[in-house]
Specification:
Elements (H helix, E strand, L loop, with lengths): L23 E6 L23 E7 L6 E3 L6 E3 L11 E10 L8 E11 L26 E5 L9 E6 L2 E7 L2
Length: about 170
């Protein structure tokens, strides 16, 4: 039979693959200052090694309290009002976008749960006025052992006294 020879050239065109961002958890201490880092940076993966990745916060109940560095994925404290006793976690919706071509700019989203770590805080004495009155002159007694109860407990803002081994409340500010 007859045969022939020829050269065939196959060109493989690189296609942009989508980056991947997984749900994760990060931690930060309560009372952290503005600019404090929140755990390690969030890291997306992209099969296209040369693509640059850009991170943004797109939603969640903590989006007003945190910001993310666009190129590194590092989350930082935006407002210094983190208080474990008020709320001990926040959620952020994050997006990662690549700078790829063919097709242009692919993205992925994920949730980051930020746990607020409780720190031991000194009790605070606030200016307040409270009055204890006793109508019966015969039972009026001088009492001692006044204590201030720490803000880290459920009895926050309560001023108590001890009489004959029993604690009672003088006033409750909270």
């Amino acid at each position: 039979g007859l045969t022939g020879r020829g050269t065939i050239t196959v060109t493989v065109t690189d296609k942009n693959e989508q980056p991947r961002l997984d749900d994760t958890v990060r931690e930060v201490k309560e009372n952290s200052l503005i600019g404090a880092t929140v755990g390690e940076p969030v890291e997306a993966t992209d099969p296209d090694a040369n693509d640059l990745l850009f991170y943004t916060i797109t939603g969640g109940d903590g989006m007003d309290l945190f910001y993310i560095m666009k190129c590194t994925g590092q989350i930082h404290v935006k407002k210094d009002i983190l208080d474990y006793e008020t709320k001990n976690y926040y959620n952020l919706s994050l997006s990662v976008l690549d700078d790829g071509r063919n097709p242009d700019e692919l993205s992925d989203t994920a949730w980051v749960e930020i746990h607020i770590i409780d720190v031991n805080e000194a009790p605070q004495l606030h200016d307040t006025a409270c009055t204890m009155t006793e109508d019966n002159e015969a039972t009026k007694l001088e009492m001692g052992f006044i204590r201030l109860v720490d803000d880290n407990t459920a009895t926050s803002g309560r001023l108590e006294y001890n009489y004959n081994g029993k604690w009672g409340t003088v006033c409750n500010a909270g």
